[in-house]
Amino acid sequence: MVKVKPFAAVRPPKDIVTEVAAPPYDVLNSQEAKDMAGEKSLLHITKPEIDFDPILPDHDQRVYDRAVVNFKEWQKRGWLKQDPKECYYVYAQTMDGRTQFGLVLCAHTDDYAEGRIKKHELTRKDKEDDRMIHVRIQNANIEPVFFAYRDNEALNAIVARYAAGEPEYHFVDENGFGHTFWVVDDDTDIARITYVFTTQVEALYVADGHHRTAAAARVGAEKRAHNPPHTGEEEYNYFMAVCFPDSQLKIIDYNRVVKDLNGLSPERLVEVLGEDFEVECKGAGVYRPDALHNFSMYLEGKWYSLTARPGRFDDSDPIGVLDVTILSRLVLDKILGIKDLRTDNRIDFVGGIRGLGELSRRVDSGEMKVAFALYPVSMDQLMRIADSGSIMPPKTTWFEPKLRSGLAIHKLD
User: Fold this and answer.
1) Nearest-angstrom CA–CA distance, 330 and 13
2) Peptide bond into 318 cis (omega under 30)
Protein backbone atom coordinates (compact mmCIF):
# COMPACT_ATOMS: atom_id res chain seq x y z
CA MET A 1 0.00 0.00 0.00
CA VAL A 2 1.08 3.60 -0.48
CA LYS A 3 2.05 6.13 2.16
CA VAL A 4 0.49 9.61 2.06
CA LYS A 5 0.12 12.54 4.42
CA PRO A 6 -1.61 15.93 4.66
CA PHE A 7 0.44 19.12 4.48
CA ALA A 8 0.17 22.80 5.30
CA ALA A 9 -0.12 24.27 1.82
CA VAL A 10 1.34 27.61 0.83
CA ARG A 11 -1.38 29.15 -1.32
CA PRO A 12 -2.91 32.46 -2.41
CA PRO A 13 -5.69 34.29 -0.57
CA LYS A 14 -9.09 33.70 -2.12
CA ASP A 15 -9.44 37.21 -3.54
CA ILE A 16 -6.27 37.02 -5.68
CA VAL A 17 -6.18 33.33 -6.66
CA THR A 18 -6.85 34.10 -10.33
CA GLU A 19 -3.96 36.58 -10.37
CA VAL A 20 -1.51 34.09 -8.84
CA ALA A 21 -2.55 30.75 -10.37
CA ALA A 22 -0.91 29.97 -13.70
CA PRO A 23 -0.49 27.25 -16.32
CA PRO A 24 2.27 24.68 -15.65
CA TYR A 25 5.84 25.69 -16.49
CA ASP A 26 6.05 23.36 -19.48
CA VAL A 27 2.95 24.35 -21.46
CA LEU A 28 4.15 27.87 -22.29
CA ASN A 29 7.37 29.03 -23.89
CA SER A 30 9.17 31.93 -22.24
CA GLN A 31 7.70 34.61 -24.48
CA GLU A 32 4.17 33.28 -24.02
CA ALA A 33 4.72 33.25 -20.26
CA LYS A 34 6.05 36.82 -20.31
CA ASP A 35 3.03 37.99 -22.29
CA MET A 36 0.61 36.26 -19.91
CA ALA A 37 2.17 37.01 -16.53
CA GLY A 38 0.60 39.73 -14.42
CA GLU A 39 2.29 41.25 -11.39
CA LYS A 40 1.30 38.44 -8.99
CA SER A 41 1.51 35.49 -11.40
CA LEU A 42 3.27 32.33 -10.25
CA LEU A 43 5.03 32.36 -13.64
CA HIS A 44 7.53 34.77 -12.07
CA ILE A 45 8.50 31.85 -9.81
CA THR A 46 8.16 28.91 -12.21
CA LYS A 47 9.55 30.71 -15.29
CA PRO A 48 11.58 33.60 -13.82
CA GLU A 49 13.56 34.07 -17.03
CA ILE A 50 10.63 36.30 -18.04
CA ASP A 51 11.78 38.92 -15.51
CA PHE A 52 14.83 39.71 -17.63
CA ASP A 53 15.04 41.82 -20.77
CA PRO A 54 15.99 40.21 -23.01
CA ILE A 55 14.63 36.91 -21.68
CA LEU A 56 17.47 34.76 -20.34
CA PRO A 57 17.95 31.04 -21.05
CA ASP A 58 16.02 29.13 -18.41
CA HIS A 59 19.17 27.29 -17.18
CA ASP A 60 21.04 30.53 -16.43
CA GLN A 61 22.07 30.75 -12.74
CA ARG A 62 20.53 34.22 -12.56
CA VAL A 63 17.19 32.66 -13.44
CA TYR A 64 17.43 30.13 -10.60
CA ASP A 65 18.45 32.91 -8.20
CA ARG A 66 15.50 35.05 -9.25
CA ALA A 67 13.12 32.15 -8.62
CA VAL A 68 14.23 32.03 -4.98
CA VAL A 69 13.93 35.81 -4.57
CA ASN A 70 10.46 35.85 -6.09
CA PHE A 71 9.14 32.97 -3.97
CA LYS A 72 10.27 34.78 -0.80
CA GLU A 73 8.83 38.06 -2.06
CA TRP A 74 5.41 36.54 -2.87
CA GLN A 75 5.24 35.24 0.72
CA LYS A 76 6.44 38.53 2.18
CA ARG A 77 3.75 40.45 0.28
CA GLY A 78 1.03 38.04 1.36
CA TRP A 79 0.36 36.79 -2.16
CA LEU A 80 1.18 33.32 -0.86
CA LYS A 81 0.33 32.29 2.70
CA GLN A 82 0.84 29.02 4.56
CA ASP A 83 -2.14 27.25 6.10
CA PRO A 84 -1.98 26.98 9.91
CA LYS A 85 -2.41 23.20 9.96
CA GLU A 86 -1.80 20.15 7.78
CA CYS A 87 -4.77 19.45 5.51
CA TYR A 88 -5.79 17.52 2.47
CA TYR A 89 -7.43 19.39 -0.39
CA VAL A 90 -9.96 18.50 -3.09
CA TYR A 91 -9.25 19.89 -6.55
CA ALA A 92 -11.87 19.58 -9.30
CA GLN A 93 -11.30 20.36 -12.98
CA THR A 94 -14.09 20.79 -15.51
CA MET A 95 -13.65 20.54 -19.27
CA ASP A 96 -16.32 20.09 -21.94
CA GLY A 97 -18.96 19.35 -19.32
CA ARG A 98 -16.88 16.61 -17.65
CA THR A 99 -15.50 17.06 -14.11
CA GLN A 100 -12.72 15.09 -12.42
CA PHE A 101 -12.10 15.30 -8.66
CA GLY A 102 -8.60 14.86 -7.25
CA LEU A 103 -7.13 14.77 -3.75
CA VAL A 104 -4.14 17.04 -3.17
CA LEU A 105 -1.73 15.27 -0.84
CA CYS A 106 1.87 14.38 -0.18
CA ALA A 107 3.21 11.09 -1.53
CA HIS A 108 6.33 9.40 -0.16
CA THR A 109 9.58 9.15 -2.12
CA ASP A 110 10.09 5.56 -0.92
CA ASP A 111 6.97 4.52 -2.82
CA TYR A 112 8.57 5.86 -6.00
CA ALA A 113 11.91 4.18 -5.30
CA GLU A 114 10.23 0.87 -4.45
CA GLY A 115 7.79 0.83 -7.37
CA ARG A 116 4.48 1.59 -5.66
CA ILE A 117 4.35 4.85 -7.59
CA LYS A 118 4.38 3.45 -11.09
CA LYS A 119 5.62 5.18 -14.22
CA HIS A 120 4.89 4.50 -17.88
CA GLU A 121 7.45 6.79 -19.56
CA LEU A 122 11.21 7.21 -19.53
CA THR A 123 12.65 10.50 -18.34
CA ARG A 124 15.46 12.62 -19.75
CA LYS A 125 18.29 13.40 -17.34
CA ASP A 126 18.61 17.02 -18.45
CA LYS A 127 14.95 17.71 -17.69
CA GLU A 128 15.20 15.83 -14.39
CA ASP A 129 18.26 17.89 -13.45
CA ASP A 130 16.47 21.16 -14.18
CA ARG A 131 13.42 20.23 -12.08
CA MET A 132 15.72 18.95 -9.30
CA ILE A 133 17.48 22.31 -9.14
CA HIS A 134 14.13 24.09 -8.79
CA VAL A 135 13.02 21.82 -5.94
CA ARG A 136 16.38 22.10 -4.21
CA ILE A 137 16.77 25.87 -4.39
CA GLN A 138 13.19 26.55 -3.29
CA ASN A 139 13.14 23.73 -0.72
CA ALA A 140 9.61 23.21 -1.97
CA ASN A 141 7.43 21.53 -4.56
CA ILE A 142 6.10 24.59 -6.34
CA GLU A 143 3.99 22.58 -8.81
CA PRO A 144 2.17 19.27 -8.21
CA VAL A 145 2.46 16.06 -10.15
CA PHE A 146 -0.62 14.36 -11.60
CA PHE A 147 -1.32 10.82 -10.31
CA ALA A 148 -4.11 8.29 -10.76
CA TYR A 149 -5.29 5.51 -8.50
CA ARG A 150 -7.81 2.74 -8.93
CA ASP A 151 -11.32 3.80 -7.91
CA ASN A 152 -12.02 3.63 -4.17
CA GLU A 153 -15.55 4.02 -2.81
CA ALA A 154 -14.46 5.34 0.59
CA LEU A 155 -12.35 8.11 -0.93
CA ASN A 156 -15.06 8.91 -3.48
CA ALA A 157 -17.57 9.40 -0.66
CA ILE A 158 -15.34 11.84 1.23
CA VAL A 159 -14.57 13.82 -1.91
CA ALA A 160 -18.25 13.98 -2.89
CA ARG A 161 -19.20 15.34 0.52
CA TYR A 162 -16.71 18.19 0.27
CA ALA A 163 -17.58 18.87 -3.35
CA ALA A 164 -21.18 19.48 -2.25
CA GLY A 165 -20.03 22.33 0.00
CA GLU A 166 -18.81 25.88 -0.56
CA PRO A 167 -15.40 25.90 -2.30
CA GLU A 168 -12.36 27.86 -1.26
CA TYR A 169 -11.59 28.74 -4.89
CA HIS A 170 -13.65 28.60 -8.05
CA PHE A 171 -12.70 30.14 -11.38
CA VAL A 172 -12.57 29.53 -15.12
CA ASP A 173 -9.21 29.87 -16.87
CA GLU A 174 -8.29 31.38 -20.24
CA ASN A 175 -9.09 28.07 -21.98
CA GLY A 176 -12.59 27.88 -20.53
CA PHE A 177 -11.62 25.10 -18.07
CA GLY A 178 -13.08 25.26 -14.56
CA HIS A 179 -10.95 24.93 -11.41
CA THR A 180 -12.57 24.40 -7.99
CA PHE A 181 -10.74 23.81 -4.70
CA TRP A 182 -11.87 22.77 -1.22
CA VAL A 183 -9.89 22.51 2.05
CA VAL A 184 -10.22 19.25 4.01
CA ASP A 185 -9.36 20.45 7.51
CA ASP A 186 -11.56 18.19 9.66
CA ASP A 187 -9.32 15.92 11.72
CA THR A 188 -11.62 12.91 11.35
CA ASP A 189 -11.67 13.23 7.57
CA ILE A 190 -7.92 13.75 7.46
CA ALA A 191 -7.33 10.59 9.46
CA ARG A 192 -9.80 8.66 7.32
CA ILE A 193 -8.14 9.68 4.04
CA THR A 194 -4.72 8.68 5.39
CA TYR A 195 -6.09 5.35 6.60
CA VAL A 196 -7.79 4.47 3.32
CA PHE A 197 -4.72 5.21 1.21
CA THR A 198 -2.37 3.32 3.49
CA THR A 199 -4.63 0.25 3.80
CA GLN A 200 -6.55 0.05 0.51
CA VAL A 201 -4.62 1.80 -2.30
CA GLU A 202 -1.93 -0.50 -3.62
CA ALA A 203 -0.33 1.87 -6.10
CA LEU A 204 -0.31 5.34 -7.55
CA TYR A 205 0.23 5.85 -11.29
CA VAL A 206 2.09 8.80 -12.79
CA ALA A 207 -0.24 10.33 -15.34
CA ASP A 208 1.63 13.58 -16.00
CA GLY A 209 4.81 14.79 -14.33
CA HIS A 210 7.39 12.00 -14.68
CA HIS A 211 10.29 14.46 -14.52
CA ARG A 212 8.94 16.31 -11.49
CA THR A 213 8.32 13.00 -9.71
CA ALA A 214 11.84 11.76 -10.41
CA ALA A 215 13.31 15.12 -9.37
CA ALA A 216 11.40 15.12 -6.08
CA ALA A 217 12.63 11.60 -5.31
CA ARG A 218 16.22 12.62 -6.06
CA VAL A 219 16.01 15.66 -3.78
CA GLY A 220 14.60 13.48 -1.01
CA ALA A 221 17.46 11.02 -1.42
CA GLU A 222 19.97 13.87 -1.43
CA LYS A 223 18.56 15.35 1.79
CA ARG A 224 18.50 12.03 3.63
CA ALA A 225 22.13 11.43 2.66
CA HIS A 226 23.06 14.69 4.43
CA ASN A 227 20.97 13.94 7.50
CA PRO A 228 22.52 11.14 9.64
CA PRO A 229 19.55 10.93 12.05
CA HIS A 230 17.15 10.46 9.11
CA THR A 231 13.94 8.64 10.12
CA GLY A 232 11.88 8.61 6.91
CA GLU A 233 9.24 10.87 8.42
CA GLU A 234 10.90 14.18 7.61
CA GLU A 235 8.94 16.49 5.33
CA TYR A 236 11.58 16.18 2.60
CA ASN A 237 10.57 12.53 2.16
CA TYR A 238 7.26 13.72 0.72
CA PHE A 239 6.25 15.56 -2.42
CA MET A 240 3.01 17.13 -3.61
CA ALA A 241 0.62 15.29 -5.94
CA VAL A 242 -2.97 15.56 -7.11
CA CYS A 243 -4.46 12.05 -7.22
CA PHE A 244 -7.54 11.23 -9.31
CA PRO A 245 -9.57 8.01 -9.46
CA ASP A 246 -8.90 6.31 -12.77
CA SER A 247 -12.58 6.16 -13.80
CA GLN A 248 -12.74 9.96 -13.98
CA LEU A 249 -9.71 10.46 -16.21
CA LYS A 250 -9.69 10.61 -19.98
CA ILE A 251 -6.58 10.41 -22.13
CA ILE A 252 -6.81 12.28 -25.40
CA ASP A 253 -4.98 11.58 -28.63
CA TYR A 254 -1.32 12.48 -29.19
CA ASN A 255 -0.68 12.77 -32.91
CA ARG A 256 2.28 12.87 -35.31
CA VAL A 257 3.35 15.08 -38.22
CA VAL A 258 6.28 14.23 -40.51
CA LYS A 259 8.36 16.57 -42.66
CA ASP A 260 8.93 14.32 -45.69
CA LEU A 261 7.95 11.00 -47.27
CA ASN A 262 11.44 9.46 -47.20
CA GLY A 263 11.78 9.74 -50.99
CA LEU A 264 8.36 8.30 -51.80
CA SER A 265 5.69 9.98 -53.87
CA PRO A 266 2.28 10.42 -52.19
CA GLU A 267 0.84 7.78 -54.50
CA ARG A 268 3.60 5.30 -53.65
CA LEU A 269 3.16 5.92 -49.91
CA VAL A 270 -0.53 5.03 -50.14
CA GLU A 271 0.35 1.92 -52.16
CA VAL A 272 3.00 0.74 -49.68
CA LEU A 273 0.71 1.33 -46.70
CA GLY A 274 -1.69 -1.17 -48.24
CA GLU A 275 0.67 -4.01 -47.31
CA ASP A 276 -0.10 -3.66 -43.61
CA PHE A 277 -3.29 -1.57 -43.54
CA GLU A 278 -6.68 -1.44 -45.16
CA VAL A 279 -6.54 2.01 -46.74
CA GLU A 280 -9.65 4.03 -47.54
CA CYS A 281 -9.67 7.57 -48.89
CA LYS A 282 -12.18 9.73 -46.99
CA GLY A 283 -11.79 12.89 -49.06
CA ALA A 284 -11.36 16.45 -47.81
CA GLY A 285 -13.58 16.09 -44.72
CA VAL A 286 -11.75 15.53 -41.42
CA TYR A 287 -11.62 11.86 -40.48
CA ARG A 288 -11.05 10.86 -36.85
CA PRO A 289 -10.03 7.31 -35.85
CA ASP A 290 -13.04 5.52 -34.37
CA ALA A 291 -11.50 2.41 -32.76
CA LEU A 292 -8.23 0.83 -31.66
CA HIS A 293 -5.90 -0.03 -34.56
CA ASN A 294 -7.62 2.50 -36.80
CA PHE A 295 -5.64 5.60 -37.78
CA SER A 296 -6.28 8.65 -39.86
CA MET A 297 -3.75 10.10 -42.27
CA TYR A 298 -3.75 13.54 -43.90
CA LEU A 299 -1.84 13.71 -47.18
CA GLU A 300 -2.06 16.05 -50.16
CA GLY A 301 -5.31 17.65 -48.98
CA LYS A 302 -7.13 14.36 -48.31
CA TRP A 303 -7.92 12.28 -45.22
CA TYR A 304 -7.46 8.51 -45.21
CA SER A 305 -8.56 5.74 -42.88
CA LEU A 306 -5.82 3.20 -42.10
CA THR A 307 -6.87 0.00 -40.31
CA ALA A 308 -4.12 -2.41 -39.29
CA ARG A 309 -4.57 -5.80 -40.89
CA PRO A 310 -4.96 -8.91 -38.67
CA GLY A 311 -1.63 -10.42 -37.68
CA ARG A 312 0.20 -7.08 -37.73
CA PHE A 313 0.01 -6.72 -33.93
CA ASP A 314 -0.10 -8.90 -30.83
CA ASP A 315 -3.06 -8.28 -28.54
CA SER A 316 -1.36 -10.23 -25.76
CA ASP A 317 1.60 -7.82 -25.67
CA PRO A 318 0.72 -4.71 -23.61
CA ILE A 319 3.20 -2.58 -25.59
CA GLY A 320 2.91 -4.24 -29.00
CA VAL A 321 -0.87 -3.79 -29.05
CA LEU A 322 -0.62 -0.01 -28.58
CA ASP A 323 -1.47 2.05 -31.64
CA VAL A 324 1.59 4.22 -31.09
CA THR A 325 3.70 1.04 -31.35
CA ILE A 326 1.88 -0.17 -34.48
CA LEU A 327 2.26 3.20 -36.20
CA SER A 328 5.92 3.53 -35.18
CA ARG A 329 6.84 0.03 -36.32
CA LEU A 330 4.81 -0.31 -39.54
CA VAL A 331 4.83 3.28 -40.80
CA LEU A 332 7.31 5.63 -39.17
CA ASP A 333 10.17 3.11 -39.05
CA LYS A 334 9.42 0.65 -41.84
CA ILE A 335 8.28 3.14 -44.48
CA LEU A 336 9.42 6.63 -43.44
CA GLY A 337 12.75 5.67 -41.88
CA ILE A 338 12.19 7.32 -38.50
CA LYS A 339 14.01 5.09 -36.01
CA ASP A 340 14.08 7.18 -32.82
CA LEU A 341 11.07 9.31 -31.91
CA ARG A 342 13.06 11.15 -29.25
CA THR A 343 15.85 12.42 -31.50
CA ASP A 344 14.69 12.46 -35.13
CA ASN A 345 13.98 16.06 -36.17
CA ARG A 346 11.81 14.93 -39.09
CA ILE A 347 8.89 14.23 -36.75
CA ASP A 348 6.87 16.40 -34.40
CA PHE A 349 4.01 15.70 -32.00
CA VAL A 350 0.67 17.46 -31.66
CA GLY A 351 -1.54 17.12 -28.60
CA GLY A 352 -5.14 16.28 -29.37
CA ILE A 353 -6.30 19.38 -27.50
CA ARG A 354 -5.32 21.33 -30.64
CA GLY A 355 -7.75 19.35 -32.78
CA LEU A 356 -7.21 17.52 -36.06
CA GLY A 357 -7.41 20.83 -37.86
CA GLU A 358 -3.92 21.57 -36.53
CA LEU A 359 -2.63 18.51 -38.41
CA SER A 360 -4.08 19.59 -41.75
CA ARG A 361 -2.92 23.17 -41.14
CA ARG A 362 0.70 22.10 -40.67
CA VAL A 363 0.62 19.92 -43.78
CA ASP A 364 -1.19 22.47 -45.94
CA SER A 365 1.31 25.15 -44.91
CA GLY A 366 4.13 23.08 -46.41
CA GLU A 367 5.88 22.75 -43.05
CA MET A 368 5.00 19.05 -42.91
CA LYS A 369 4.23 16.50 -45.61
CA VAL A 370 1.97 14.00 -43.85
CA ALA A 371 0.07 13.73 -40.56
CA PHE A 372 -1.25 10.77 -38.56
CA ALA A 373 -3.96 10.82 -35.89
CA LEU A 374 -4.32 8.00 -33.36
CA TYR A 375 -7.12 6.58 -31.25
CA PRO A 376 -6.38 7.52 -27.61
CA VAL A 377 -4.83 5.12 -25.12
CA SER A 378 -7.18 4.11 -22.29
CA MET A 379 -6.47 4.46 -18.57
CA ASP A 380 -6.77 0.69 -18.27
CA GLN A 381 -4.02 0.24 -20.87
CA LEU A 382 -1.80 2.77 -19.08
CA MET A 383 -2.18 1.06 -15.71
CA ARG A 384 -1.69 -2.45 -17.09
CA ILE A 385 1.52 -1.32 -18.77
CA ALA A 386 2.74 0.37 -15.59
CA ASP A 387 1.84 -2.73 -13.54
CA SER A 388 3.87 -4.89 -15.92
CA GLY A 389 6.92 -2.67 -15.49
CA SER A 390 6.91 -1.83 -19.19
CA ILE A 391 7.47 1.60 -20.71
CA MET A 392 5.27 3.22 -23.34
CA PRO A 393 6.79 4.73 -26.48
CA PRO A 394 7.46 8.48 -26.32
CA LYS A 395 4.54 10.90 -26.66
CA THR A 396 1.80 8.35 -26.05
CA THR A 397 -0.50 10.07 -23.56
CA TRP A 398 -1.94 13.57 -23.33
CA PHE A 399 -4.05 14.61 -20.36
CA GLU A 400 -6.32 17.64 -20.27
CA PRO A 401 -7.02 19.84 -18.50
CA LYS A 402 -3.58 20.51 -17.05
CA LEU A 403 -3.26 21.09 -13.33
CA ARG A 404 -3.24 24.78 -12.49
CA SER A 405 -0.06 25.78 -10.66
CA GLY A 406 -0.21 27.99 -7.59
CA LEU A 407 -3.29 26.58 -5.88
CA ALA A 408 -1.03 24.77 -3.41
CA ILE A 409 2.72 24.63 -2.75
CA HIS A 410 4.48 22.13 -0.45
CA LYS A 411 7.49 23.19 1.62
CA LEU A 412 10.09 20.53 2.40
CA ASP A 413 10.76 21.70 5.96
Assistant:
1) 53
2) no
